[in-house]
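Task: encode each sequence below as structure tokens.

Item 1
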Amino acid sequence: MNRKVLSTLLSLLMILPIVTVLPINPTAAQAQTTIEVINPLTGDNTFYFIQYGDGGAGRTFVVEVWIKNAVSVALFQVALAFDKTMLKVVDFNREKDATHFFAGKSTIDAPPEINQEVIDGWNAEGLIVYGSSTFPMVNVAGSGWTAKITFEITKNVTKYNPLLESYLVLVKEDTFVCKLEDKDGNPQPFDTVDGHFKLEWREPPIPKPWLEVVPGEVKLGYPMGPSIIGTPKAIFTVEIWIRNVDPRRKLIGIQSMVLHWDTTLLRLLNSWEGPFLKSFAPYGTLWINVTDPAPPPNAESLTIGVIMWPNPATGEWDFETWPEGEGVVATVQFEAILQEEYPWTAQCPIDVEPLFGEYFIDANLEWIPYEPEKDGKYIIIGWILGRMIDVYVPIYPDPYGGQGLNETSDMFRPQKTVPLWANVTYNAEPVQSKLVTFEIINPKGKVVAVRVAYTDENGVARTEFGIPWPCEDPWETIFGEWTVVASVDIRCTVVKDWLRFKVWWEVEIVSVTPKQTSYKKCENAEFEITIRTYREQKGTAIIAITVYDDLDVPIGHAYVPIDYGHDKHVYCQFWNYTTTLSVPVPKWAFVGVGKVYAVVLSNYPSKCGDAYGPEASATFSIVKSG
């Protein structure tokens, strides 16, 4: 809506038929009626934000414009000016609630007009104008909000440009101004309270390091079978990582950390120093590891200390390079010493904690503050003998193929072949020439296939199936969780195993979004692409975009290779990733509506690749330059 149309509408609001005439009380009209810019979080007119480190663009905040202490108001118009070089309006809301100024009244609402296009960096004043009137015209007294306006910060603060500051001004002298009128069209006096916006850069706080047991969970006894006690499968290691080390901390060592575990389940075999601190220690390190009984029942402790030696000539830690980043400070080796028959299971924490309440020490021999440690967990599943069948996907390595009883497999994309193997044993020995039944169930609970196969000399039965793809709405029946049930009769007793896996797009584009609503010719158009996948194992892909102009002429193409997937056994959870690609808008592009199309590919078709999922699209404006 242009300003002329808005002005006409607001004028109509002011001359609506008058139903009744009430005398105006001059004394009441002179009360302190105000129109105010209010921060709903603080209740005042300030919008102050702190940005630690460079950034700030993209943050949003809500502004409420209130009328307070009104006596006789049937119509209002609000004109709010702002600095459009640093702010833009992204949402406007005036859905009435109990605190709205015209709550409970029928109204005619003029839609907001927003002028916030920045032209060549000048004309910094943005403006939003809106208005409402009761209908039929009746006077309203009291206080209430008129609109909730969401602003987005469009400019970053940096160390060298550390402050953004401007006012949210309620305009009283201009073409469009704030006004209050009663039902007879009489102007009502008022004061204004402007808003004050400020975004201030601050030096980022120095990160705090922490210790972490890696992996966070150790699970033994999978896939299920004979006892592992006394075998090489019972031995494992965990690493103690230090994370988030900032060189400004001038870390010289870990004074003391203590590791606890349950000694009825685990035996400590060995421990040795990791490479992290040694890589920063020009004069070497002092490594201490002491094993002691600990107060908790069935617990033992390992105390570890690692200190970098100072310069022997000066006795000072006068290093040129200080520890930075993350790495392994210690490796600890354990052996499982207890496992009982399934369904027995047991677990215990592999708990790391400071000996004297502190971990890290700096070059001034002062304690370094730290984030909470991240402990590990040990789980062991009971052994199982006798009759057993395990169905799994052989093309995926353990644990991604569902190896073990009632386990889950990594995902499959539509129409892929799913090979199925079932391992049949009795007392951990292969059972040959047995008929194994495979039942395949789709996400709707419908049986789509039943197959039977003999076990071979290794006790393995094999079959496979292709994932269907119906003509009508295939994703409605194909996408989701599939189930495979395998069973076998071993000496008049039927045993079975379940396997579940997800069918979804290999990689799905969630969205492609222009960074700006419009781009000029001869400037770079930037687009943010977000993808997701259920894939547990790592894979490689190409994200590509193609940009069309208003006449559907391709004006640019860009791509980026990526690695995707969780890289760990995390069932039925999306892995998300966002990247940005840019395409220059050529001088010869046709102005108007531009289109961007995003795809994710295994590779380009000319290199035997194909699409991993459907494309996504968005529009933006192409405008002339200069």
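Item 2
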Amino acid sequence: MIPDKIFQDLEADIPRSGENFLVWKRQTASALGAPIPTNSNLIQNYLAYCQKANREPNNEILKLFQRRSIRTLSGVAPITVLTKPFPCPGQCVYCPTQARMPKSYLSNEPAAMRALNLEFDPYPQVTNRLRSFQANGHATDKCELIVLGGTWSAYPEYYQLWYITRLYEALNDGPDGKNFEEEPRIIDANIPALKERLLQAQKINESAGNRAVGLCLETRPDHVTPPEVARLRFLGATRMQIGVQSIYQDVLDLIKRGEKVEDTIRANRLLREAGFKVDMHTMPNLPGSTLARDEEMYRVLFSDPNFKPDQLKIYPTIVNEYAELHQWWKNGQWQPYSDKDLLELSINIKSKYIPYYTRINRLVRDIPKESISAGNNITNLREYIHAEMKKRDLHCKCIRCREARNRTANLDEAKLFIEKYDCARGLEYFISYENSDRTILYAFVRLRIPQDDINPELAKLLPDIVGSPARSGSARAGVAHIRELHTYGKLTPIGEHDDGIQHAGFGARLMAKAEEIVREHGLKKIAIIAGVGVRAYYAKLGYKLEQTYMTKTL
């Protein structure tokens, strides 16, 4: 127990920098004759001190105690979970196949390690992360659920329904939830009952203390079909990660990917027509590629309307002992790029080709060095790249590099910008509030206007949600889609107000601008692919729940 006087002295003289805070922690440890206290321990003791004194905690002190604030400075608390191992339809040569793990994941990756220790049970994976976030001072009422573990679409339907239901139930029960249960056996699976249970959990989550503002799943492009898209929406998915890996068919064939470039093009269009955000995974340095081809791939990704991803992961190829590529490397059939070549390639990609509307989520897989036999083992590659770019006065326009986070000094000077581009046979708008030189991004909305006939099977599966653009003699007008609305800065709990970005009114203003553009295009309806936990927000803006979307007739 930390004495009250420690906190009384802290409130009288609050450290104004991280460095001064570390000095205070060392002095506190010296005074107590104890090890340096952890931030979670400080939070626990400080809240107990405030409760005993019947006073509100000092927010400035809570911010000091908040460990790894970067986790929630993007506006949400990300909760990553893994599904259990299941046979994968792919035979990719670079993919590790470690026993007891889902295809492509290793037992010493952080998220995978947590999942393995919990036997891949979705419920405790969520409740444990909630406890961890809260113990370190992070709010958890706005969560994005990120489900990893291989090709989601290849899992049995009963498992998908049960797994996602348990994620919502864990959020609803909160960090102290103890509602454990065994996974149902396939012979006992009651699909209609599981669907009803999922809908009930989603309904509760609309007003729960820990809400799912987004649900991200990952799959192969060749598994994205109209029926699959409809199933993904029933589950509540809002973002899809698809393994593109390469845009060169000869490379895909060589690595035994088992799919066509056309699969990626079709998947991108189907997902966007249903309002999804699309996160494409790519792999430079694959067998059959070269530095020149890799750089050209990223140029094409952002110049060819068939691609243009909303989010991007760049995973330089590495060799692991559990992958077939390991033998290729030992035989001299494949060699990794040098650190210098990989650094130059990455700098060129970030400085030349990435547009304002794309977020680079990752530049390297979270694989420990000891598991890498050959290939990039610089786990903080992004920092190396940024340091070198700074020396050369080069800049990346990606969303992640420009997120406001805690840079809120000049919110009243934010300007409205509108990017318009063709993608997947539709017209996309990236509407944003940023500072004048576009180096700080405060908030944005993604709007899609249909420009071509919608896939007829998808239109039947999602009636009145997806629709082709109005034409002379057409019986149905098109439906515009809000694919994402995001406000950056520190996660502010629902119902609380401060002077940060999340309460500057950018969201409502961006929605109003999007509606204005929709009217200009002559469309009468907007559908929002809203996460279950943000339905209430859109209801305040005049939208109503229709199927799994929030819609408004203009």
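Check on item 2: The chain is about 35% helix and 15% strand. Residues 157-173 form the longest helix (17 residues).
End of task.
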